[in-house]
Amino acid sequence: MSSKKTNKTSSVMKLISKGRSAANPIIDEKFKEEVILPKSKQEDKPAKSETGINIIEELVQEWLPETMRRFNCPDSDIWKAELTVKALNILPPKYVPVNGTKDYANIQNIKEKYKKQVINTLVKLAIDSKRGENSGKFS
């Protein structure tokens, strides 16, 4: 029998391994070559250093304070959080990869493209939320 330790009795190991002397017959050389070794090679490769930002989230954070001020919404963290969550749930995300300073101009162009949509949504939410303020609840 094999000199490797196992919690199975020698007779069970003989049945499982069909007489071969393998500590774990399921993980044989073919399995190691096909599954385990390729996965370990993939882990050695460094990941791309590419980050991305959500343009819609950036615009919501940029325009929310001004919208709340113009529509006399309470300047509380709860109102800010609720309006932010509602706006981000309504608006579809727009992720843009950022690799360096040359992408900055591209990001500014995309922000201009989505600015009107974000501001319209924030205004609608601010008005709807102010209507719900009369009942004492944020809705």
Structural key phrases:
single chain; 139 residues; mainly alpha; 2 domains; two-stranded antiparallel ribbon; elongated
Count all strands and give the number: 2
Give the low-confidence spans: none
Number of DSSP helices? 5
Number of domains: 2
How is the biggest beta sheet arranged?
Answer: 2 strands, antiparallel
Strand % is: 5-15%
Distance between the termini: 72 Å
CA radius of gyration is 29 Å
What is the approximate shape?
Answer: elongated
Q: Would you tell me the overall average pLDDT?
A: 77
Spell out the helices and strands N to C: HHEHHEH
Structural class: mainly alpha
Helix percentage range: 55-70%
Main sheet strand line-up: 1-2
Map the helices and strands.
Elements: H1 10-17, H2 29-44, E1 51-54, H3 55-70, H4 77-90, E2 95-98, H5 103-133
Antiparallel strand pairs: 1-2
What does this entry look like structurally?
The chain is mainly α. It has two domains: 10-44, no CATH class; 51-133, no CATH class. It has five helices and two strands. Strands 1-2 form a two-stranded antiparallel ribbon. Helix 3 (55-70) crosses helix 5 and helix 4 (77-90) crosses helix 5 (103-133). The longest helix has 31 residues, at 103-133. The mean pLDDT is 77.
Short description:
The protein is mainly alpha-helical and 139 residues long. Helix content is 61%, strand content 6%.
